[in-house]
Amino acid sequence: MLCPYINQYPAGEGLLQAYLRESVARDLSWGCLVLGAVGVLMYALLTQAGLWLEGGLCLGLGLLALAAAVSARLLPRLRAGRTKTGPERVGIVEFGSRIRVTEGAETFWADYDQIVRVKRLSTLSVLQLDNGEAIVVANGGFTRGEPEHFWPFLEKMMTCHGAGLDKKTPERGGREQI
């Protein structure tokens, strides 16, 4: 079967760094926004009670947390173009009747019904499998297929449970050397 979607992603340590930077920054920014809002609220309550020094400290910490939230959102976007991927290693993911991931001399096969979680970020997405493995999809790395039609295709294939398996590949996911 012809693979309707082929995706290339930069492999190596730079990929992990980019994923961690983006996902941690997003989670950190939400925490800082909450902390900043609490600091400003505490300032208002403490100054009404006449505790100006304590209110000023809460305001200062709240503003610092808000500045951290803004920088956590902006810095990953500014640094996104400068991610180092080491030697030009490229992983290729082919989405057909099954998912085939090739990185170097290793090939990884997976079925769509093995996907337990999809985490979408701005530059890449991660498909987590039930065996603890993960498949990386670079949002801007499609070399075949229209990217805007990929997510509906993936949802459809996940509900169909990978029908029409190719019998030349391992029965249910696995690795093989080329």
Notes on the structure:
With 178 residues, the protein is of the alpha+beta class. It is 44% helix and 26% strand. It has three helices and nine strands; from the N terminus they run E-H-H-E-E-E-E-E-E-E-H-E. The chain has helices spanning 13-48, 52-79, 147-160; strands at residues 5-10, 90-95, 99-103, 106-110, 115-120, 124-129, 134-138, 142-144, 174-177. The strands form two sheets. Strands 8-1-2-3-4-9 form a six-stranded antiparallel sheet, with helices on one face. Strands 5-6-7 form a three-stranded antiparallel sheet, with no helix packed on it. A hairpin with a 2-residue loop joins strand 3 (99-103) and strand 4. The longest helix has 36 residues, at 13-48. The two termini are 20 Å apart.
Layout of helices and strands:
Elements: E1 5-10, H1 13-48, H2 52-79, E2 90-95, E3 99-103, E4 106-110, E5 115-120, E6 124-129, E7 134-138, E8 142-144, H3 147-160, E9 174-177
Antiparallel strand pairs: 1-2, 1-8, 2-3, 3-4, 4-9, 5-6, 6-7
Helix pairs in contact: 1-2
Short overview:
The chain is an alpha+beta fold and 178 residues long. The chain is built from 3 helices and 9 strands.
